[in-house]
Amino acid sequence: MIKTIEAINELRETVQAWHNQGLKVGFVPTMGNLHAGHLQLVDKAKQIADKVIVSIFVNPLQFGVNEDFGRYPRTFDADCEKLTQHGADVVFFPSVDTMYPNGMAKQTIVEVPEELTNLLCGASRPGHFAGVATVVTKLLNLVQPDYAIFGEKDYQQLLVIKRLVADLCLPIEIVAAPICREPDQLAMSSRNQYLTPEQRQIAPQLFVCLQWIAQQLQEGSRDFERWSVEAQRQLNALGFKSDYVEIRRAADLQVPTENDKELVILVAAFLGQTRLIDNMQLSL
């Protein structure tokens, strides 16, 4: 069974011993309740590093009021079994007190500039990316890996983390892994299990929506606003409550011009109480 570390000093001693041997360390931060998407990140880490650490920490700082922190699934034993099967070396399993010893109200906060964080999911979830940036900065400082692997499903989060690592001059390479999908193309997420059987049948329409917009763009249309509005109308007619459907520049999430070629289509929508996100990158 995989080794579990809860204390910071033991974590640092373990990583220091690896670095002293000249070993490269890969890191996969998670909130647990691991599915095949998470395990794909572990596999990616195994390919590029000698040792792999996975953190499991449900971060209260990134959940807003009335969000699902309390009911977010905790499945530590099952997670450890999966990590053992995929060859991870250590699971870092800190408590809230370990991560925030002075309480969250007195925690120094890391904030990436608003141009990247106050739009899309940041507009819908105020404070979310400050919570993400803060906990990721702490985890990267604690683990001090050579590589940290993040999935592209949370595309805005990925760009936020790349920006903070660059701006804070952290000597860590951020590695992106592609979205892992169910057979019906629904992006894998721990929140998918909240869906009722009826909602689960509807959920793959998010990806259909992305494909439809991509087709319009590939055929030469640059009427970005039109396709965003029409896609939201279609989703709402199917039973979603759309949060946003946006076509943005892939590099910085700003509104594209007609000359931009590298785009990303992003969608967020509720099915009942469950908020789902997805995206598709597009090179025109």
Rounded mean pLDDT is 97
Flag low-confidence runs.
none
- Tell me the fraction of residues in β-strands, as a range: 15-25%
Query: What's the helix-strand series?
Result: EHEHEHEHHHHEHEHHHEEE
User: What is the number of beta strands?
Assistant: 9
Biggest sheet strand order reads 1-4-3-2-5-6
First CA to last CA: what distance? 47 Å
- Specify the biggest β-sheet: 6 strands, parallel
> How helical, in percent, are the residues?
25-40%
Based on CA inertia axes, which overall geometry fits?
Answer: globular
Radius of gyration, taken over Cα atoms and rounded to an integer in Å = 19 Å
By secondary-structure content and strand pairing, the structural class works out as alpha/beta
- Number of alpha- plus pi-helical segments: 11
Assembly state: single chain
Give an overview in words:
- By secondary structure, the chain is α/β, with parallel strands linked by helices.
- The protein is 39% helix and 20% strand.
- It has helices at 8-20, 36-48, 76-85, 96-99, 114-117, 121-124, 128-143, 155-167, 197-202, 205-218, 224-238; strands at residues 3-5, 25-30, 51-56, 90-92, 147-151, 173-177, 241-249, 262-271, 274-283.
- The strands form two sheets. Strands 1-4-3-2-5-6 form a six-stranded parallel sheet, with helices on both faces. A three-stranded antiparallel sheet has the order 7-8-9.
- Helix 7 packs across helix 8 (155-167) and helix 10 (205-218) packs antiparallel against helix 11.
- The longest helix is centred in the middle third of the chain and has 16 residues, at 128-143.
